[in-house]
Specification:
The complex is a heterodimer.
Chain A lengths: L2 H21 L9 H6 L6 H12 L2 H14 L4 H10 L1 H17 L4 H8 L3 H33 L6 H51 L2 H10 L20 H15 L3 H4 L8 H15 L2 H14 L9 H8 L4 H35 L9 H24 L4 H14 L2 H9 L5 H20 L10 H19 L5 H8 L3
Chain B lengths: L1 H20 L13 E2 L2 E2 H24 L7
Antiparallel strand pairs in B: 1-2
Chain lengths: ~500, ~70
């Protein structure tokens, strides 16, 4: 059989299994909004573990991770460093959010915040912020999928078709099964991705150098030894400063637990205990980045001069003359990385858009069935918009996403205040959030005005916290009953 | 009281791990040599911190949710 046909058969089989694992849960969940958005609060530890793990490990990790190690060396350790710090707040926030959700019917992060701070404005602002971040994020996942299929099939599958077919399948199972479709398909995709990453991460150093130790010893002996000294290099090859590295780790860690699609999985858990256990197990998923980075390091000496660092994985696969079946499996692994993040983002974007963006603006209450249908339609709509961006890609979308990390981190202070600071007020929270986002965006657009070489998110957070505290003290206390409802839940 | 004390210990441990992953802690382990189990020191340190973070969270989890004692 021809190489191309074998690869496409394996990819086709993988996509079919993904579709099945995504569709079958639709038979078990109720046809309610809670069923679609929060899976009737029935996710067990196994599914949650993969949902939390896989929704973060995206095309960026599978293609970008090796790319960072290849071009920026030790800078790539940043991706691992922030995860273990960033997951900790969810251990404390998660069970509180889960109990409030179960008691009062919340299914999104913005619903919690809008209720505590009695503000529809905040809900709408968070919905717009989320969708503005999710569309480019989803677009990047689609680009990753289309790109991998195009390169590996040696142009046989055009970019638009690869991205189109992959995400048509994602849209189908998200449309029918909601979050449980995301959950079960992520479990399948996550396991698949883990096996592929470890297999390749161990195989490449062994084949190219005779082992991991030998590979790093060769790198240390070479002209590239400085790449292995933390904090590595910047994108243009100059040394990355400690202040820039440390502040990037901090901002990403602070924002990590409050990414709206990540945080809202708290509501899908079967119990607070399951949620906590999944959070505790999360760092074991982080170790999956070790082989991913090894792939990138293995290419530094063996495949020098690849201009587009993110393409290093497909580049290696094509150079090594591996059996078609192996290339097909890795191709499916890369698609799994793209889809397992893409489906979670698509589902969250649609849910948040309707629950937090549209619903608070309506004058009449929305019944459950029409609301669910509206969310399902939004899945298709948002998927289509992102696809249109993906097939007419320009660079600005990547820049937009990189800026998103600083923006998302601005949600952290108000989530913290919601649970732990009774004196926080509506206007304190709104001004903190708005001030933080504005300052973050300003320094993202005009980095030359930064006084210190710190991530723009740090400037945003400083203003955010100052405004949250000062404006809260300058404005009257919020209603005692609501404040206590949030502060006293354990 | 016991839960409170464990949470304080956990917070201190996580603070140390966090400072170990950024400036100034990471500076001490930022060099590529020696190789630890084949990994450069700078990489092995991040892996070690991830494992330590996992163990700390696991310990906190078991102190918050003690396994039921057998009869």
């Amino acid at each position: 059989m021809e190489t191309g046909t074998t690869i496409l058969l394996i990819v086709g089989l993988y996509l079919f299994v993904s579709l099945l694992t995504g569709i079958i849960p639709s038979l078990r969940i109720t046809k309610s909004v809670s069923g679609f958005v929060a899976g009737d609060r029935s996710m067990n530890v196994f599914i949650l573990y993969f949902v939390l793990g896989a929704s973060i490990f995206s095309s960026f990790a599978f293609l970008g991770g090796p790319g960072w190690a290849y071009s920026r060396g030790a800078a790539a350790f940043y991706i691992m460093a922030y995860g273990v710090i960033g997951i900790v707040p969810l251990y404390f926030f998660g069970p509180r959010a889960w109990r409030l959700g179960k008691k009062f019917g919340f299914v999104t992060q913005a619903e919690l915040l809008a209720n505590r701070f009695d503000s529809k404005l905040m809900s709408v602002v968070l919905a717009v912020l989320s969708v503005a971040i999710f569309i480019p994020y989803l677009t990047l996942q689609m680009i990753g999928a289309g790109y991998v299929l195009n390169v590996i099939s040696e142009g046989l599958v055009p970019f638009w078709l690869g991205a189109g077919i992959t995400y048509l399948i994602v849209m189908i199972y998200v449309y029918f099964s909601g979050v449980m479709g995301v959950g079960w398909s992520n479990a399948f995709q996550g396991m698949f991705m883990l096996v592929m990453a470890w297999a390749l991460g161990l195989y490449l150093p062994q084949t190219l150098y005779g082992g991991i130790g030998e590979m790093f010893a060769a790198l240390i002996e070479s002209d590239h030894s400085e790449m292995l000294i933390a904090p590595g290099l910047t994108g243009d090859g100059s040394p990355w400063s400690w202040s820039a590295f440390s502040s990037a780790v901090l901002v990403s860690a602070i924002g990590f637990s409050v990414w709206p699609h990540f945080f809202m999985r708290s509501f899908a858990a079967k119990s607070a205990y399951s949620l906590r256990l999944s959070v505790v197990l999360y760092p074991t998923f982080l170790l999956f980045l070790v082989p991913i980075l090894l792939i990138g390091f293995s290419a530094i000496l063996s495949f020098p001069g690849v201009e587009q660092a993110d393409s290093i994985l497909p580049h290696i696969l094509m150079q090594l003359e591996l059996p078609a079946i192996v290339i097909g499996l890795f191709c499916a692994g890369a698609l799994a990385a793209s889809m397992s993040s893409g489906d979670a983002i698509l589902h969250s974007a649609a849910s948040i858009w309707v629950r937090d963006g549209i619903k608070p603006m309506l004058t009449r209450p929305l019944r459950d069935r029409p609301e669910r249908f509206l969310i399902q339609i939004s899945v298709l709509f948002i998927g289509l918009i992102s696809y249109l961006f993906a097939v007419v890609i320009d660079v600005s979308i990547v820049a937009l996403l990189l800026g998103a990390y600083g923006g998302v981190a601005q949600i952290f202070p108000i989530v913290f205040a919601m649970f732990y600071w009774k004196r926080a007020t509506k206007w304190g929270a709104i001004s903190g959030l708005a001030g933080g986002i504005l300052v973050n965006t300003f320094f993202l657009l005009f980095p030359e005005y930064k006084i210190f070489d710190l991530h723009e998110g740090i400037y945003g957070l400083a203003i955010n916290v100052i405004l949250l505290i000062s404006v809260s003290y300058l404005t009257p206390r919020d209603s005692g009953a609501t404040v206590n409802k949030f502060a006293e839940i354990e | 009281m016991r839960v409170g004390r464990n949470r304080i210990i956990f917070s201190v441990v996580m603070l140390i791990i966090s400072l170990g992953l950024i400036w100034p802690g990471y500076v001490l382990f930022s060099h590529h040599s020696p190789l630890v189990f084949g990994f450069p020191l700078s990489f092995a340190w991040v892996i070690l911190c991830t494992i330590m973070g996992f163990v700390a969270m696991l310990a906190l989890f078991f102190s918050d949710h003690p396994p039921k004692k057998r009869d």
